[in-house]
Amino acid sequence: IYNKGLISMVSGGTAELVRFLLRRTNCKERLIDALKRVLSKEISYSGEMMAVFKVLNMTYRQAIESIPQPPAGSGGRATVSLTQLASYMGGRSLLSEKDMVIQVFHPLFMSIYGELIGKQKSASWEQPQGSQADSLRAMVPAPDPDPSGEMEKTRVPLPKKKLKALKKQPYIFCATISYLRSLLNFQILPHKILQIFAFDLCLFFNQQHVLQQLLHYHVLLDSVEISYRLFEVLLREVAENEKHGQPAGKLCWATQI
User: Fold this and answer.
1) Contact (Cβ atoms closer than 8 angstroms) between residue 234 and residue 252
2) Residue 16: how many CB atoms within 10 A of its CB?
3) Most CB within 10 Å of its CB: which of 69, 178, 197, 200?
4) pLDDT for 75-124, tens place per residue?
């Protein structure tokens, strides 16, 4: 039922193609492939892309609501783990935000910017050096290890040299933030891996103003990983100030959130 020409054959556009695949069992890989193809063509940010995410996340929300919840009065907010959701869905096609980051957004980002990142020795951020940076680093422990390694694999490192001023926000950045907002519109709390990926993209593309808004309005929720990334930003800017002989007390934007 699926081939490379199907994208151009479905009369209702990309959103209808996604709806078509979501209705069929065991079509997850085909759905991922279709999304990667249409997003790589940079479909309309304001229209078609939002329609695609609406279809995806409406189905996602319906799947969450279909899982039996604990009885009222049992205390606490009912939550559904991705493992529980996958087990309950069986062979039905569904994409979680974890799937979107690992299999769609991050591969698309790497296909465009992978050469720039590939020149670095590691996917991890370069550790800034300096007397103040060393003192601050000793005060804050590293976050808990990631047993699955998924967040580290999808981590976006800061480029060693800042990117040139952007005339407009990159498409992959717009797509990721739009998907994040679409989840929130359906009252789905984004998985930590999506929050971290969005955080990293904001820094990679010098979109600190967007990052500040996401943090201020709790779109990116408080977590050890987010806090540690903010701390790494502070370390980097402290080291830069020392390197250029700027006042040590100069505030980094990360301290004002």
Assistant:
1) yes
2) 14
3) 197
4) 545 578 888 888 777 778 889 999 999 999 999 999 988 887 765 544 44
CA 79, 84, 86 angle in degrees (round to 5)? Answer: 125
Two tokens, residue 19: 């709806």
Give yes or no for a contact between 203 and 110, defined as CB atoms under 8 angstroms apart: no
Look up residue 193 and give its amino acid: I
Per-position b or e across 34-61, b if 16+ CB within 10 A of its CB: bbbebbeeebeeeeebbbbbebbbebbe
pLDDT digits (tens, 9 = 90+) for 173-221: 999 999 999 999 999 999 999 999 999 999 999 898 999 999 999 899 8
For residue 25, which phi and psi values (nearest 5 degrees)? -80, 150
Residues 6+ apart with CB under 8 A from 105: 172, 175, 176, 179, 197
**3-state SS, one letter per residue, for the chain:** CCCCCHHHHCCCCHHHHHHHHHCCECCHHHHHHHHHHHHHCCCCCCCHHHHHHHHHHHHHHHHHHHCCCCCCCCCCCCCCCHHHHHHHHCCECCCCHHHHHHHHHHHHHHHHHHHHHHCCCCCCCCCCCCHHHHHHHHHCCCCCCCCCCHHHHCCCCCCCCCCCCCCCCCHHHHHHHHHHHHHHHCCCCCCHHHHHHHHHHHHHCCCHHHHHHHHHCCCCCCCHHHHHHHHHHHHHHHHHHHHCCCCCCCCCHHHHC
Q: Which of 82, 211, 86, 222 is nearest to 158 (CA)?
A: 211
Spatial CB neighbours of 41, under 8 Å, sequence gap ≥ 6: none
CB under 8 Å to 53, separation ≥6 — which residues? 178, 179, 182
